[in-house]
Request: fold
Amino acid sequence: MRRKLAAGNWKMNGTAASLAEVTALIAAHPAPRSEMLICPPATLIAAMAQAAAGSALQVGGQDCHANTSGAHTGDIAAVQLKDAGASHVILGHSERRADHNETDAEVRAKTLAAVAAGLTAVVCIGETEAERDAGATLKVIGDQLMGSLPDTAYGKEVVIAYEPVWAIGTGRTPTLEQIAEVHDFLRDELAIRFGTAAAEDFRLLYGGSVKPSNATEIFAIANVDGALVGGASLKAADFGAILSALDAS
Ligand code: PEP
Reply:
């Protein structure tokens, strides 16, 4: 059985004062059925990991470099995230693909580095609105999935997040049928590449304007194993409500 995962992406938001939100989250959800993860800015990873010590909350990074060390000013190695207390890292988020021109090949190399460092990689893929309008969604998603995953990807170490670019931070979401279509397609593609049994181990998250009001219906979709949540993860009450919906699904 795949354990469901509620993952929060704080993006470039939060300072030390924001740790009060995770303290509240931990207090309200001492033993969730689902895995609970927050990926704060790198500046907060160590402090958040300390605040979360002994609790069910896990802490992750939002990116890592493919190398383990070296002359890469401003970058962070996967081993350094691990050293700071992270257990996961988001890779290939559409904002990084857009802002930093990250390619599938780079995401694949980062995924290998993350897994080698003992982190769970949360690999993001998703189509733009123009690609969906052109009827190219499954082709785009399929290509990103294949290009971003190394041959050695294993469901216990790699999570896939389907995030339509046009749904991120916009308040718009695909229909439930559209989410189901993509998630079923992803499971099938994973089975073709890794075999049916191995494909069942991968958790498939949906991301893009998930909030307490739409979480229950999204989590009722087969092959949705949780969510990657941006804006609504910044407030303990909202993220906690999404986590509760996942626990109840
Ligand atoms: C995200 O950035 O991963 C995301 C899903 O953002 P939001 O929930 O704000 O749409």
